[in-house]
């Protein structure tokens, strides 16, 4: 199956940036045993001791109080019918949130949807047919329901980031963005790319409180605006997220019922591994955490043999981020 370059809309992690601090209380961090070239992970010592990882001859111990949640935006509506085991929709937005309870911070890793990594391939019968290095966005396409789509996506992210366990996830289709934007009364951004072909008001330099349709276009438009690249769309997604996060956190602090209202309003079009009640309770404790700037890993892009764009990240850059985020050198 080849990646389709139909633009997605978005990102939006918002439900998440809501959930952001919440993730900090979600699940105790656990590292699966993994092994690859130059990387050895596993448990050492007595029961309950934190996992260790060996990289290039040095040993690192996992930090305590670290938790993760993956935000997935896929290129189908939440109501779209799925046909077979390869029609789950590509995940055109991937954000890994890493919550550190000790430092009371949340790190955000925005993963390029074209990142090349091992993903699980399902045959036409729905049974696993092995692994193949492909764009990470394709992991979500396999499976006949959203829960399975999300599971395969979590596994792909864990394979891309050795020594990391993705504990929870929230996924949403492209119908999420307009509903969310409406609920918060519009998110204000400054336009960098020329989107005037979609809306005359969306010209470079303009600062707009986005209507629901404008928010949709700002987050999903790609091939018909600017340079047409996914990297430009990801940049716009990050701009929207930054503005929306500030808006959301301020609303939560001012209004004790806002988190409950938000979750009630969007829960039916998301798939979350947390119950609605648990999500609401955790969100209401989230405001004291510091949201760090979004991060992206250094990468190179080129067109693969099949004619589609590929994003390549060096192993040492991946491991540098993993070790800095999750581990302490012994």
Question: What order do the helices and strands come in, and which of them pair?
Answer:
Elements: H1 14-23, E1 35-36, E2 39-42, E3 52-55, E4 58-62, E5 66-74, E6 91-100, E7 105-111, E8 116-122, E9 128-135, H2 146-160, E10 168-172, H3 176-183, E11 188-190, E12 207-209, H4 212-220, H5 230-254, H6 258-266, E13 270-272, H7 276-283, E14 290-295, E15 300-303, E16 309-312, H8 315-326, E17 327-329
Parallel strand pairs: 5-10, 7-14
Antiparallel strand pairs: 1-2, 2-3, 3-4, 4-17, 5-6, 6-7, 8-9, 10-13, 11-12, 15-16
Helix pairs in contact: 1-7, 3-4, 4-5, 6-7
Summarize this entry quickly.
The chain is of the alpha+beta class and 330 residues long.
CATH level-3 fold name of the domain at 14-176 and 272-329? Nucleotidyltransferase, domain 5
From the alpha carbons, calculate the radius of gyration and give it in angstroms. Answer: 19 Å
The largest sheet has its strands arranged as: 13-10-5-6-7-14
Instruction: Write down how many β-strands occur, each being a DSSP E stretch of 2 or more residues.
Output: 17
Largest sheet: 6 strands, mixed
Q: Tell me which CATH architecture of the domain at 14-176 and 272-329 applies here.
A: 2-Layer Sandwich
Q: Indicate the percent of residues in helices.
A: 25-40%
Mean pLDDT metric: 84
Order of helices and strands: HEEEEEEEEEHEHEEHHHEHEEEHE
Structural class by SSE content: alpha+beta
Tell me the distance between the termini: 44 Å
Determine and state the CATH class of the domain at 14-176 and 272-329. Alpha Beta
Q: Quickly count the helices.
A: 8
The backbone outline, from C-alpha atoms, is globular
């Amino acid at each position: 199956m080849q990646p389709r370059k139909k633009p997605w809309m978005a990102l939006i992690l918002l439900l998440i940036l809501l959930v952001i601090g919440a993730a900090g209380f979600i699940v105790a961090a656990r590292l699966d045993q993994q092994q690859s070239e130059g990387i050895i992970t596993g448990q050492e010592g007595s029961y309950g001791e934190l996992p260790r990882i060996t990289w290039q001859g040095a040993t690192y111990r996992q930090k305590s109080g670290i938790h993760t949640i993956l935000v997935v935006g896929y290129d189908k509506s939440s109501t779209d019918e799925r046909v077979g085991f390869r029609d789950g929709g590509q995940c055109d937005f991937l954000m890994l949130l890493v919550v550190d309870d000790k430092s009371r911070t949340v790190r955000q890793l925005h993963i390029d949807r074209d990142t090349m990594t091992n993903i699980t391939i399902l045959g036409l019968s729905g049974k696993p047919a092995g692994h193949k290095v492909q764009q990470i966005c394709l992991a979500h396409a396999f499976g006949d329901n959203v829960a399975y789509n999300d599971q395969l996506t979590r596994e792909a992210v864990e394979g891309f980031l050795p020594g990391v366990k993705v504990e929870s996830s929230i996924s949403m289709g492209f119908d999420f963005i307009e509903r969310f934007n409406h609920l918060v009364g519009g998110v204000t951004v400054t336009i960098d790319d020329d989107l005037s072909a979609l809306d005359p008001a969306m010209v470079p330099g303009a600062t707009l409180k986005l209507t629901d349709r404008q928010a949709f276009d700002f987050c999903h438009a790609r091939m018909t605006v600017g340079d047409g690249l996914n990297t430009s769309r990801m940049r716009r997604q990050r701009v929207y997220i930054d503005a929306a996060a500030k808006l959301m956190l301020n609303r939560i602090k001012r209004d004790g019922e806002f988190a409950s209202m938000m979750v009630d309003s969007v829960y039916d079009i998301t798939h979350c591994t947390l119950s609605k009640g648990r999500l609401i309770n955790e969100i209401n404790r989230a405001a004291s955490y510091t949201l760090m700037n979004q991060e992206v890993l250094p990468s190179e892009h080129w067109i693969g043999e099949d004619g589609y764009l590929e994003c390549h990240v060096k192993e040492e850059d991946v491991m540098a981020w993993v070790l800095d985020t999750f581990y302490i050198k012994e």
